[in-house]
Design brief:
Helix content: 55-70%
Number of strands: 7
Bound molecules: guanosine-5'-diphosphate, magnesium ion
Radius of gyration: 28 Å
Structural class: alpha/beta
Strand content: 5-15%
Number of domains: 2
Strand order of the largest sheet: 2-3-4-1-5-6-7
Distance between the termini: 21 Å
CATH class of the largest domain: Mainly Alpha
Order of helices and strands: HHHHHHHHEHEEEHEHEHEH
CATH architecture of the largest domain: Up-down Bundle
Oligomer: single chain
């Protein structure tokens, strides 16, 4: 894998390299994982068996007599073995957990379980090995059979044993297939560009801001293993291209209110951002007061920013219709937050996502925090 080479050439292990390089490695891994998964097809056991059956029907004996029969039955066995091996070997191209970027790895760890995933791959590997053993064994039995009946009997037995290996893999194949399908969906954030994750209570203006700043209509993709979505806008600003990501329902409430799925989703999400943008809603229509919003901010600082060494940029949104009292309180709370988490917090910037007030200055600050393209 290319990224391992980079780390090795730098003479260091991945977690010891500089943060920017680590980010770069993660981004490249992320892309590699998705590119790889796109090219893999994970069949069900039933599909493999059915495919074998179709191909099997087309085989015809070429010679008469016992020698011809042996040759024919070996051909049939070989066909079954070859198909099973090829299909399963393709499945084994699924990346090992240790070769994955953190986002994808954590998704699997949280929603599937690391052991369950590795076990599935192990079973597939084992099935290939056993299939090979049956092929070796039964090929000899058929080749040395003393009658047409005996040749048939061994072929039946050999094919049966190989196909029963496949049938017993069914559960594991289904799991790998699901993992593949879920992770491939993350292609919209897997191009290797820097990521800014936007947080804030519902109606704070996250969607409005992302729509305003993205070059095209934001893309919506399923958040793997959940019924939630990831919304991604691509932002181009002064030579910098990055993603602005919204994850509705995940960074909108303090974490003690999260259900199990949201907690898992958050754990995976933690490794994604290069910076976090937190939006305060200071309008009279805000659905939560600013104390609540500050608690959410603090949660995000502790659970994402501090753990991953990324900054949180604070923007006070809806400045065009700000409620005076809420605005003043917000300044006070932010002051306190800055005292507590001085090195992590940037801002605040007053903006109106709707009217476009202050957004250029905000972008200027945001891009300073992102790894540069080159
Ligand atoms: N006046 C005003 N309204 C805004 C502003 N930003 C967003 N809104 C409105 O607030 C509502 C919720 O915005 P939305 O972007 O959907 O919030 P989200 O839930 O955080 O994605 C919408 O009606 C927006 O038009 C702003 O800067 N000023
Ligand atoms: Mg929204």
């Amino acid at each position: 894998m290319i990224v391992d080479k980079i780390a090795v050439e730098h003479g260091q292990e991945i977690d010891k390299v500089a943060p920017w390089l680590q980010r770069h490695i993660q981004a490249m891994r992320m892309r590699e994982v998705v590119e790889k998964l796109k090219k893999i097809y994970v069949p069900s056991a039933e599909e493999i068996v059915k495919y074998v059956g179709e191909r099997y029907k087309r085989l015809r004996p070429r010679r008469r007599g016992l020698a011809g029969r042996r040759e024919f039955e070996i051909k049939r066995l070989e066909l079954v073995y070859n198909i099973v091996r090829d299909k399963l070997q393709k499945v084994l191209e699924m990346p090992r957990l240790e070769a994955m970027d953190e986002f994808h790895r954590r998704l699997i760890e949280e929603f599937i379980g690391a052991e369950v995933y590795e076990e599935a791959l192990k079973r597939v590997r084992l099935a290939i090995k056993l299939a090979r053993r049956f092929w070796d064994e039964y090929r000899v039995l058929i080749a040395t059979s003393q009658s047409v009946e005996e040749a048939k009997k061994y072929r039946k037995e050999g094919c049966g044993r190989i196909l029963s290996l496949v049938r017993r893999l069914d559960k594991h194949l289904k799991l790998l297939r699901r993992v593949r399908e879920e992770l491939v969906q993350t292609h919209v954030v897997s191009e290797g560009l820097p990521v800014v994750v936007v947080a804030g209570i519902p109606s704070a203006g996250k969607s409005t801001l992302i729509s305003r700043l993205s070059t095209a209509k934001p893309e919506v993709a399923p958040y793997p293993f959940t019924t939630k979505n990831i919304i991604v806008g691509k932002v181009v600003f002064k030579n910098q291209i990055f993603y602005m990501v919204d994850t509705p329902g995940i960074l909108e409430r303090p974490m003690h209110q999260h259900n199990q799925i949201e907690r898992k989703a958050l754990v995976a999400l933690t490794s994604l951002p290069d910076a976090i943008l937190f939006l305060y809603d200071v309008s009279a229509e805000r659905v939560q007061d600013v104390v609540y919003q500050t608690r959410l901010l603090e949660d995000i600082i502790r659970n994402i920013a501090l753990k991953n060494g990324v900054k949180v940029v604070i923007a006070i949104n809806k400045i065009d219709v700000a409620d005076r009292e809420a605005l003043q309180k917000t300044y006070q709370y932010i002051e306190e937050i800055k005292k507590k988490y001085d090195s992590v917090v940037v801002g605040p910037y007053n903006i109106s996502a709707l009217k476009g007030i202050g957004v250029e200055q905000l972008l200027n600050e945001l891009i300073k925090l992102l790894p540069s393209k080159g």
